[in-house]
Each structure stands twice: as C-alpha cells, then as structure tokens.
Amino acid sequence: MTRGKVTLSPFHKRSFYLALGLLWASGAVWLFFYYVGLHKEVTSGFPLQVWTLKIHGALAMIFMIILGSLLPVHIRLAWNQNRNRLAGAWLIGLNAFLIITGWMLYYVGNETTRTWISLLHWSTGLGLPLFVYMHIRFARHYPEKRRPQYHS
Length: 152
Prior knowledge:
The chain has one domain. 76% of the residues lie in helices and 0% in strands. The chain has helices at residues 10-36, 47-80, 85-107, 111-141.
C-alpha cells in the first residue's frame, strides 16, 4: 500500500472542529443550567435549558455523520499505515462510549440508572476535546520516521 496523506482536508477539518465545538458548548451550557441554574428537571425546566438539550441532540447527529466520514479515508489509511494508532483508538472508543451513553440516556433505565449514565456521559464529553488535542499533538510531535513500528 502506498503511503497517502492522513491529514484532513481544510473543509473536513473545519467541519469537524465546528461540530465538536458546538456539540461541546451545547452540552456545557446544558450542564450549567442543570447544575448551577435553578431547574433540576431534565426536560421540563427553564425553556433555554430544554432547547439546549434539543440542540445538543441535533448536533450529536451531525457530529456522528462527520465522525463516520472519517472512517473510509482518515482512520482506515492511518490504521493501515500504523500511524497514531493508540490515540486514534482512544478517540474511537471515547466517541463510541459517548454515542452509547447518549442513546442510553433516552432509552434505558430508571432515574437512578439515568443519573449514573448522565454522569458518565457528560464527564467523558467534557474531556473529549482534550483527547482530540492530544491525538493531533502526538501525530505532529512524533513524525512517522521517529514513531515505533508495531506489527499487527
């Protein structure tokens, strides 16, 4: 296999960062309303809180489309070239965890279970941009020729 460029196109990069930033911000704003605000109701509290949750769900769908668009080229190519696998695998796993816990918040469990799922979901989601940053920094800091080669 020839070694192709693994970096994202400028459009793809902007789309990813914009979707991630808006998704993160909408979740953080909802958390602010829920934990700092006066309304502890998840879906019937302050109207802006309710809309923030709806916007967060819509942005999650957009983000999943963009994330899925990374699979056929960026992720496959980098994986086959043995580049940045550990950080990439962490990102894939964290995003899968967020998708599953996001789905569980709507369809699984009672209020006690939902409280724990919510805690796991938002604590992971708040940290996701840090893992994206680490993935990018690791790829830039360790050029391909300096990285240890792991054979699968």
